[in-house]
Amino acid sequence: MNYPGQVGKLEDDELTPSPINEKLTPNPFPGLRPFSLDECHLFFGREGHADEILEKLAQHRAVTVLGYSGSGKSSLMYCGLIPMLYGGFMTQNSPLWKVVIARPGSSPIENLTDSIIAVLAADGRLEESDVQIHKAVISSVLRSGSNGLVEICNYIQTELKENVFFLIDQFEELFKYKESNTENADNESIEYVNLLLNTVKQSHTSAYVALSMRADFMGNCAEFPGLTELVNSCNYLVPQMTREQKRLVIEGPVSVGGGRISQRLVKRLLSDIGDNQDQLPILQHALMRTWNYWVTYREPGEPMDLRHYNAIGQISQALSLHANEAYDELTANERTIAETLFKAITEKSQAAQGTRRPSKIGLIAELAEVSEGEVITVIDKFRQSGRSFLMPSYQVELTSDSVIELSHESLMRIWNRLAGWVDEESESARMYKRVSEAAAMYQIGKTSLWRPPDLQLALNWQKKQNPSRAWAQRYDVAFERAIVFLDTSRITFEAELKNQEMLQRRMLRRARITSIILGIALLFSIGMFLYGLINNIQAQKDKELAQQETKKAVAAREDAEKSRLIAEERTREVERQEKLLKASYAQLEKALSDTRLAKEFALRQASLALAAEKVALESGEKEKVANLEAQAQTVIAKKEFERANGLYFLTVAQSLEAKSEGIDDKELAGLTAMQGYLFHTKYDGPKYDPYVFRGLYYALAKLSGFNYNAAKVPGGLKNKMFALAVSQKMEKFYT
């Protein structure tokens, strides 16, 4: 531990630079990662906090260190508590300690086993050939019962009074593991907690347990019996650092490293850091970058100053610029691998907060569909010296089983590119879970296949993300079932579209044929109408001709009557002449001869008159017959016209009903369907017309919002019913 000491100050107006040690140490700032055990000499600002933690540990044999992300919990445990244990500050115990540092990760008991093996190997108690055997034995003992960890403590101890200290860092990972889809995750999580609780409760073995956990996960402790009581009895909430403590965090490592920092830069850093949640990791990162820049570009005797700080982008941009710098060094293929890498080692919690998700290199290579060597090449770009974005650090050689994780969660909140990847992965996972849940419900018959818009959104997601089985199993193991459900929904919907298109084409073809037939009937009716009209005109002409013949006959009759009167007058004149000329024979014979001639002429005139009268009578009869025939043709023509007109309006009614189905406006659809129905009723359409029924049904459904075509019948009938007839004698009905 480093306790407060005197640190020299550089006044802002100081012009004469003081000498700086030219033998500078390596960069004294770890960046985003926590301080390690061998960096205790660089850890400043938490003096006194470790004493309080040690006191709780001594009193309760356990302590739970709580704090928000970025508060320095891990560094406080590594460089605060553990050095005090090694230093013998827990006076009631032996100064001999075995320290086991573990994290739950994606396999809590297996990770604890690996940490115990590492301690035994560091003591020289294991040969490399015996590692796997010891690992199997220790794992078996831990899983054998709740006292398994106590038995392992007895095995670890090499001295009679030696103490064993278990530091479980990032304890909140256990809650995420419990909620994962890993087989038997619930039971293993409970076994893991019981191992720790029983180790604390027993008294015959000198074993101590410390948990470090984010404060926002405290509520999850209630999921494990006994864990809430332990946390309540011995929790320690890491306090916010004061301004002076933050000053020590800045100035202390610089002095240890042999450098010097101007007071105006210190003030600027304290001002820029403010109360940001991620203040400590981003401050450490900014100082690490500033130190590197200062070492490279400093003038002789020049301390770390504002120009070096501004050059790295200040606190607000330093982290994002540094991460982008590493990303820009990658090739196009390596950038794709990097995106898959960071998506694999990050996730969003249920509270929509970004969290770390440690993953093995083998899994990342499988997700990216590349070799493990290519993945390691990309990882090394982000963990090389001076870049602490990923862990383990660059000194550790990577293998297929190496677990990769972010150095700190603040990278997800500050690096804009990574924040976008995290959101994209979260949305993709959410969509996959929706599809998987729907597939499970469909399998047991509690839901139906998807239709747009859900189906279209899922298909767009599938096309964009191209999910693989390895990726999907991290969220739900039933990947094949989900994909089959999605494909079945797509095929069924496409089939429905094709059937609907075929039905519409059939209905359109039917309407066209009907229109052609009705058109022909209309043309025939028009032809008949014209034929009757022509006959009517001819009858009118015949009537006028008959009237003219009648007038001629009347005139001839009048002439005959006049001739008859003249003849009679002449006969009387002859008789008078006969009486007057009795005396003259020759005159009488002549008069007689004349009279005979006149009589014959009169008879001929009478015959002509009778003939004319007969002709007149025959013309009248023909006129009556022509009039009757014309009237009959007119009636037939009117009936054909009315029938054709009625067929035309019935076609219009069917067209209106068909159009109303495609109208979105429910009022307009209702008016259109009603107008078609009025035409159909007015012109005596058939009682069960499918077009009229469909139009009225869909109009009512749009206006009322109810589905009237719903009748539960046995046999799983799926056809639509347009009419229903119920038998009066039997309990049956017909559709």
Note the main attributes of this structure.
62% helix, 6% strand, Rossmann fold, three-stranded antiparallel β-sheet, rod-shaped, 12 strands, five-stranded parallel β-sheet, Arc Repressor Mutant, subunit A, 24 helices, 4 domains, alpha/beta, disordered N terminus, 735 residues
Mean pLDDT: 85
CATH class of the largest domain, anyone? Alpha Beta
- Sheet-strand content, in percent, reads 5-15%
Give start-end ranges of low-pLDDT stretches.
3-18
Number of helices: 24
The number of E-state strands comes to: 12
Distance between the termini: 90 Å
Strand arrangement across the biggest beta sheet: 2-3-4-1-5
**Largest sheet, described in full?**
5 strands, parallel
* CATH architecture descriptor text of the largest domain: 3-Layer(aba) Sandwich
Tally of separate domains = 4
Net shape:
rod-shaped
Radius of gyration, CA atoms, in whole angstroms: 56 Å
Helix content: 55-70%
Structural class based on helices, strands and sheet pairing: alpha/beta
- Named CATH topology of the largest domain: Rossmann fold
CATH homologous superfamily heading of the largest domain: P-loop containing nucleotide triphosphate hydrolases
Topology:
Layout (H helix, E strand, L loop, with lengths): L48 H12 L1 E6 L5 H14 L10 E6 L5 H15 L8 H14 L3 H9 L6 E6 L4 H7 L5 H17 L5 E8 L12 H7 L1 E3 L5 H14 L6 H11 L5 H19 L8 H6 L2 H15 L3 H13 L1 E3 L5 E3 L2 E2 H8 L3 H12 L6 E2 L11 E4 L3 H5 L1 H28 L10 H12 L3 H4 L6 H102 L4 H77 L4 H17 L7 H15 L20 E2 L6 E2 L1
Parallel strand pairs: 1-4, 1-5, 2-3, 3-4
Antiparallel strand pairs: 6-7, 8-10, 9-10, 11-12
Helix pairs in contact: 1-2, 3-4, 4-5, 6-7, 11-13, 14-15, 14-16, 15-16, 18-21, 21-22, 22-23, 22-24, 23-24
